Amino acid sequence: MTFNDFDLSKTGDGLLPVIIQDDRTLKVLMMGYMNKEAFDKTCSEGHVCFWSRTRQTLWTKGETSGNFLNVVKMYKDCDSDTLLIRAIPDGPTCHRGTLSCFDTEDSEGFIRELAALVKGRHENMPEGSYTTKLFIKGVKAISKKVGEEASESIIEAVDGNRDRFIYEACDLIYHYLVLLEQMGVSIEEIEKELALRHR
């Protein structure tokens, strides 16, 4: 893919709109623009580089903060007038210190929503909550539940019972999220370790 593969006749200023997406979470991080020089620099160096319309200069994201956007994959859209870059961020993307320039912290997928709920239960320990009861019992009891749910998932898998397997897998994932919270480990840390192993 080259800069000349894009049709920028509709943009007026000849700049290529670029959407940045977190390669691990698929969260949309930011939007910027590239000219040919910024595009070529991004391709050659592996860090996302933009053309700053306000300063009229090249701008590599992270050059001052250290929060680079490391390119994983690049996709041209169906009209060849927009670029999607999947990248791994080295830190917060927005100048406000948030992960994304878009206020979508509450929409990162249901697994993360559930993990946030578990974290909230751990912090507030509301009475009558099953999750609270697990945290009161401690790491041994939580670990035992993870083991039980894993065994039940295996049994249903071996028996070929797909619906029951899904049910037990949900129990396993929930209890594993509780164990992660008990151990002070985030989903992001798990993703980071998996990405390191993948590379």
Q: Which strand order do you get reading across the main beta sheet?
A: 2-1-6-5
Q: What's the helix-strand series?
A: EEHEEEEHHHHH
Count of alpha and pi helical runs: 6
Average pLDDT, all residues: 91
User: Approximately how much helix is present in the residues?
Assistant: 40-55%
Instruction: Tell me the total number of β-strands.
Output: 6
Protein architecture, described:
- With 199 residues, the protein is of the alpha+beta class.
- Helices cover 44% and strands 19% of the residues.
- The chain is built from six helices and six strands, in the order ββαββββααααα.
- The protein has helices at residues 36-45, 110-124, 130-137, 139-159, 162-182, 187-198; strands at residues 16-22, 28-34, 49-52, 57-60, 69-76, 83-89.
- The strands form two sheets. A four-stranded mixed beta sheet has the order 2-1-6-5, covered by helices on one side. It has a two-stranded antiparallel ribbon with strand order 3-4.
- α2 (110-124) packs across α5.
- It is elongated.
- The protein starts with 15 loop residues before the first strand and ends with a helix.
Task: Name some characteristics of this structure.
four-stranded mixed beta sheet, 6 helices, 6 strands, single chain, two-stranded antiparallel ribbon, 199 residues, elongated, alpha+beta
Entry summary:
The protein has 199 residues and is α+β, with helices and mostly antiparallel strands. The protein has helices at residues 36-45, 110-124, 130-137, 139-159, 162-182, 187-198; strands at 16-22, 28-34, 49-52, 57-60, 69-76, 83-89.
